[in-house]
UniProtKB/TrEMBL annotation, chain A:
Subcellular location: Cell membrane
Annotated positions of the FMN phosphoryl threonine modification: T159
Organism placement in taxonomy: Bacteria, Pseudomonadati, Thermodesulfobacteriota, Desulfuromonadia, Desulfuromonadales
Name listed for the protein in its UniProt record: Ion-translocating oxidoreductase complex subunit D
Organism: Malonomonas rubra DSM 5091
Cofactor(s) needed by this chain: FMN
Alphabetic keyword roster: Cell membrane, Electron transport, Flavoprotein, FMN, Membrane, Phosphoprotein, Translocase, Transmembrane, Transmembrane helix, Transport
Topology relative to the membrane: Multi-pass membrane protein
InterPro entries: NqrB/RnfD (IPR004338), RnfD_bac (IPR011303)
Record-linked HAMAP family: RsxD_RnfD
GO CC, any one term: plasma membrane
Ranges annotated as spanning the membrane: 22-41, 94-113, 125-144, 185-210, 217-236, 242-262, 274-293
Family from the record: Belongs to the NqrB/RnfD family.
Automatic annotation (TrEMBL), chain B:
A GO BP entry: electron transport chain
GO CC, alphabetical: plasma membrane
One matching Pfam family: Complex1_51K
Name the UniProt record assigns to this protein: Ion-translocating oxidoreductase complex subunit C
Organism lineage string: Bacteria, Pseudomonadati, Thermodesulfobacteriota, Desulfuromonadia, Desulfuromonadales
Enzyme Commission numbers on file: 7.-.-.-
Binding, [4Fe-4S] cluster 1: C365, C368, C371, C414
Residue intervals of the 4Fe-4S ferredoxin-type domain: 356-376, 395-424
TrEMBL record, chain C:
Iron is among the record's keywords: yes
Protein's UniProt keywords contain Transcription regulation: no
Entries under Pfam families matching the protein: Fer4_13, Fer4_21, FeS
4Fe-4S ferredoxin-type domain boundaries: 129-158, 159-188
Cellular component annotations (GO), alphabetically ordered: plasma membrane
Cofactor(s) for this UniProt protein: [4Fe-4S] cluster
This protein's name: Ion-translocating oxidoreductase complex subunit B
E.C. no: 7.-.-.-
Subunit annotation: The complex is composed of six subunits: RnfA, RnfB, RnfC, RnfD, RnfE and RnfG.
Gene symbol of the encoding locus: rnfB
Length: 328, 438, 277
């Protein structure tokens, strides 16, 4: 008998789709947003981006070594976590803050559960929330955008959402100039995290992912749709107290969250029906935190809370199987 | 054109260019035919010849054992040189009749030609059973059993499977182009047996020539040709029924539970031969194809022809074979050796070389949900496979593991290259074992 | 400040009272012996006794439904413990240990094909009866290692299952999962075993394995009372365990092995002793 033959169970061909390819495409999709952040925030942004990404890769390799696992950094998920984390940090973050974030994301957010595929929460968001709660001052020291072309030194400023929250808390009214900056919000000319600034760059990346079939429309559409819908209801009730839905869409991390964080496959439901419920929950929690919570921004908390609900959603949202017809 | 399909599935590269334009060629007889007694679903036939016997082509060499079984016939005239266990496509040594052809290829004189119009349904059914006709798409379910719905089951539609959704294979395609008369004649016989009018031939639109030809020739006979979108696994019974009629087979049921009988087009041609010429199923068309073959062909082979002999007709191997697959690449079975014989269900022989194989180590599931979106039964393969790995039989059962048709879509698409179907197959065995115990 | 302390203290007091009442009111009557028995059980929840977990077994024993000697992993200590708690005389079962009756690893046994797919012996066995030419040898994909609740089975670098006799408790989980029944339960005191499971003829075995039993009868000729050879496979009669050791040196294929100091010393299969202390 010819013992050089391979035998296996069918099928004998494969689509060629790989985890590495999926991670690579998501990283590509984030590049426009990263580029815009570099344009507006300059070298500090580059520093944060590099420390977070390289830090995540290094910590994953370290964890592999400690856990006596084969090296898993090649799958690209560590690098992706790093980039997502950087996009969730203020541009002026100190190096140690970025590095700490990378450690939390990879070690506590991912490897402690066994690595890729087993983490219940989005690692980048775990790190962001840990940093936000532990270092509130550093994590909310936003720099006003200083495009490379202007050459002005960075000054600190508040995010549009932060301004809104402050104003509502102090005066019970929205700030007057709220709606004047829509175009700036759209292109990214506002204070904020690296990655939450440019709506257009994020949208381009998100649509690229849907076009490439890396993600489906379900989570982004239901997430953003719910946020806008509920936001619109409040705005219609009292436009002097609640901002219009467009403001919700273009400021803060909504687009980044909806297209890149909530769609993290490991921590979101696997069925279409489940994804819609997941997106709805994210949207509802986001808008409630933004309007009534203590923090100006609620996307991270909303996604993490829904991550926790994912196993439950998966349990109850099963597709209707073929032939499950009314049995006679 | 009204093109239909089903929900789920995917579209792998169909790779039919290797052999789709190759006219069916008759494969010369080999030096030795190895005819196993087990070639169909159901009880294996019982061998009724011994070494030294002289047999004629079409003579019964193994008799049917029970209703869900069919007899096996000699594929040529010659001498039985051995009755012994031989390597079977299943990968085991199983009883087989070895015949040395005498070169005359003489049909058994007792075989009678019949006019189907003169026979009633029961007589036709009996003849089909005696001729050893089985589903020739690869499932090899005895045809006469499918044509015998139990009392009270109303069958109103006959669907003919001309889909050939497996990549690489082109045997059915060539049959439809070259043997359309026999196919149509067989359809008419099956229609008579079932006592119904509606007959639909489902063909995917990557075979426009076959659709055109059959549509033209079927029109006078009130047979409808239904063009279908190219989507795997449309040739699976359940998916084909859904695509053609919009009906669904209830879970755990059979096509007849929704009023449908499905037959392969090749089976229909064999049924026509069985009645009109009195010839049992002793030969079939198989595609010899794949990147490992010099000159891919569609061959008309005698049942029992060793794979090696089929290869020789196609100018042999191009490089060193790494995988020998009987059937298509999605559901075919890998073989231990080229000495294995082709049997009634062998729709193709596919050879892959080392460089043609997908080789990647499985990684962890990243819960991307692709397996769920492609599953034609709308199961959750990754969840079932996870339970399978833990041998959690009850949970796997509650996720409807038994409804899996093992089409392989989930494994094909999985970015972590997990062997999902294999896991599910494994736990299905566990569920069946548990049911037997209770 | 005072208000805070008082209100917190008040809440604590109310909650504690409520809990206390609930504990009394909804207390479930548990046979105290059940808990005592649970204490002496190993707590591995391996299921070798046939009951769902150790607590299920403890309940069964306390209610008199389960025989007290069913816990093989616990061995004699557990049995004595249970006997003491119940105040009965319990007959000890002979302690057993699992032995992999095969030495045909990747280096010594040849394969009929290269297997791709699920790392599971039962799944591989379904494909043309397993990748090894030998119909009865260890497939080396580690299903027993996965099934062992005590971490007593290790796969060697050449893919052969070997059992750590110190950790093996005789629960038979591995025996149940092995598709080729190559793992045998043997009396713990017996230290001489024939490590082959194939009933093929000698010539055939030689064609695919360097270390299988070829049924040459030399062991039986050396120590007639300790060996039996059936279907070309030698078996040790464990009644004559000590005499059986005399044939170890005589076996031409080295498939009779001495386990008196754990796994055969000098064997290339001996598991790495990382907990050598």
């Amino acid at each position: 008998m010819d013992n050089t033959l391979y035998l296996s169970s069918s099928p004998h061909i494969h689509s060629g789709e790989t985890t590495e390819r999926i991670m690579r495409l998501v990283i590509y999709a984030l590049l426009p947003a990263a580029a815009v952040s570099l344009y507006f925030f300059g070298l500090p942004a580059l520093k944060t981006l590099l420390i977070c990404t390289l830090g995540c890769i290094a910590f994953e390799a370290l964890a592999n070594k400690l856990m006596k696992q084969p090296l898993t950094v090649k799958d690209g998920s560590g690098a992706l976590t790093g980039i997502l984390l950087a996009l969730n940090m203020p541009a002026s973050s100190a190096w140690w803050l970025s590095l700490l974030g990378a450690a939390v994301a990879i070690l506590i957010g991912k490897m402690i559960y066994g690595g890729l595929g087993y983490n219940p929460f989005n690692p980048a968001l775990v790190a962001r929330v840990v940093l936000l709660i532990s270092f509130p001052v550093q994590m909310t020291s936003w720099t006003a955008p200083a495009p490379l072309t202007t050459g002005i030194d960075a000054v600190t400023a508040a995010t549009p959402l932060g301004e809104m929250k402050m104003s509502v808390m102090l005066t019970g009214k929205l700030p007057e100039n709220l709606n004047s900056g829509m175009l700036d919000y759209f292109t990214g000319n506002m204070a904020g995290c690296l990655g939450e600034v440019s709506a257009i760059a994020l949208l381009a990346g998100g649509l690229f992912l849907i076009y490439k079939k890396v993600i489906t429309w379900h989570i982004p559409v239901s997430f953003i749709g719910t946020t806008l819908g509920v936001g619109a209801i409040f705005w219609l009730v009292d436009a002097s107290k609640y901002p219009n839905p467009l403001f919700h869409l273009l400021t803060g991390g909504l687009i980044l969250g909806a297209f890149f964080m909530a769609t993290d496959m490991v921590t979101s439901p696997v069925t279409y029906q489940g994804m819609l419920i997941f997106g709805f929950g994210c949207g509802l929690l986001t808008i409630l935190i933004r309007l009534f919570g203590g923090y100006p921004e609620g996307v991270s908390f909303a996604i993490l809370l829904m991550n926790a609900a994912t196993p439950l959603i998966d349990r109850y949202c099963r597709p209707k199987i073929y032939g499950q017809v009314e049995k006679a | 054109m009204d093109v239909k399909t089903f929900a789920g599935g995917l579209h792998p590269p169909d790779s039919k260019e290797y052999a789709k334009d190759k006219v069916i060629e008759r494969c010369p007889l080999p030096d030795e035919l190895v005819i196993p007694a087990a070639q169909h679903i159901g009880a294996p036939a019982e061998i009724c010849v011994a070494a030294g016997d002289l047999v004629k082509k079409g003579q019964v060499i193994a008799t049917a054992k029970g209703f869900v079984s069919v007899p096996i016939h000699a594929s040529t005239s010659g001498e039985v040189i051995a009755v012994e266990p031989r390597l079977h496509p299943m990968g085991k040594l199983l009883p087989a009749v070895v015949i040395k052809p005498d070169g005359e290829d003489q049909w058994d004189e007792s075989l009678q030609q019949q006019d189907p119009d003169q026979l009633d349904a029961d007589a036709l059914k009996k003849l089909i059973g005696q001729a050893g006709i089985v589903g020739m798409g690869g499932a090899t379910f005895p045809a006469h059993v499918k044509l015998s719905p139990p009392e009270g089951k109303k069958i109103d539609t006959l669907i003919l499977n001309g889909v050939e959704c497996e990549p690489y294979l082109t045997a059915d395609h060539r049959m439809m182009l070259e043997e359309s008369e026999r196919i149509i004649d067989g359809i008419k016989i099956v229609r008579k047996v079932l006592g119904l009018e509606t007959a639909i031939i489902g063909i995917e639109i990557n075979k426009p020539d076959a659709i055109e030809k059959l549509a033209k020739e079927c029109a006078p006979h009130n047979i409808k040709v239904q063009p279908l979108k190219v989507q795997y696994p449309q040739g699976a019974e359940k998916q084909l029924i859904d695509a053609c009629t919009g009906r669904q087979v209830p879970t755990g049921g059979l096509p007849m539970d929704c009023g449908v009988v499905v037959q392969n087009v090749g089976t229909c041609a064999a049924i026509s031969d069985a009645i009109r010429l009195g010839r049992p199923l002793v030969e079939r068309v198989a595609t010899v194809t794949g990147p490992g073959i010099r000159n891919p062909k569609n061959l008309l082979i005698a049942v029992g022809t060793p794979l090696k002999h089929m290869l020789d007709q196609c100018d042999g191997l191009d490089g060193k074979p790494a995988k020998i697959i009987m059937g298509g690449p999605m559901m075919g079975q890998t073989q231990l050796s080229l000495d294995v014989p082709a049997i009634r269900g062998t729709s193709g022989l596919l050879i892959f070389r080392e460089q043609d194989l997908p080789r990647k180590n499985a990684g962890p599931c990243i819960r991307c949900g692709r397996c769920i979106s492609v599953c034609p039964i709308h199961l959750q393969p990754t969840t079932i496979a996870a339970y399978a790995r833990l041998d959690r039989v009850d949970e796997a059962e509650s996720y409807n593991a038994l409804d899996c048709i093992e089409c392989g879509c989930c494994t094909y698409i999985c970015p972590a290259t997990l062997p999902l179907v294999q896991s599910i197959r494994h736990i299905k065995g566990g569920i069946m074992a548990k049911r037997r115990k209770i | 400040m005072l208000a805070a302390v008082l209100s917190l203290g008040g809440i604590g007091l109310v909650a504690a009272t409520a809990l206390g009442i609930a504990a009394k009111k909804f207390a479930v009557e548990v046979d105290p012996r059940e808990l005592e028995i649970l204490d002496v059980l190993p707590g591995a929840n391996c299921g070798a006794c046939g009951y769902p977990g150790c607590s299920g077994f403890a309940k069964g024993v306390a209610e008199g439904k389960a025989a007290p000697n069913l816990c093989t992993p616990g061995g004699i200590e557990t049995l004595e413990g249970i006997a003491r708690i119940l105040g009965i005389e319990a007959a000890a079962v002979e302690p057993k240990v699992a032995v992999v009756a095969c030495q045909g690893d990747n280096a010594k046994a040849r394969v009929k094909y290269k297997y791709l797919g699920l790392t599971d012996c039962n799944a591989a066995q379904k494909i043309a009866d397993g990748p090894k030419n030998c119909p009865a040898g260890c497939l080396g994909l580690g299903s027993c290692e996965m099934a062992c609740p005590f971490g007593a089975i290790e796969m060697t670098s050449e893919n052969l299952a070997v059992i750590n006799r110190d950790k093996c408790t005789g629960c038979e989980k591995c025996v149940a999962v092995c598709p080729r029944q190559v793992i045998k339960m043997t009396p713990r005191k017996s230290t001489t075993h024939v490590l082959c499971n194939s009933t093929d003829k000698g010539a055939k075995i030689r064609s695919y394995c360097d270390i299988g039993c070829i049924g040459c009868h030399i062991c039986k000729k050396t120590v007639p009372e300790a060996y039996a050879v059936e279907t070309f496979l030698a078996k040790v009669d464990y009644e004559h365990d000590e005499e059986a050791a005399l044939a170890i040196e005589k076996c031409p294929t080295k498939c009779i092995r001495d386990f008196s100091s754990g796994y055969p010393e000098g064997s290339s299969f001996a598991p790495p002793r990382n907990d050598a202390a």
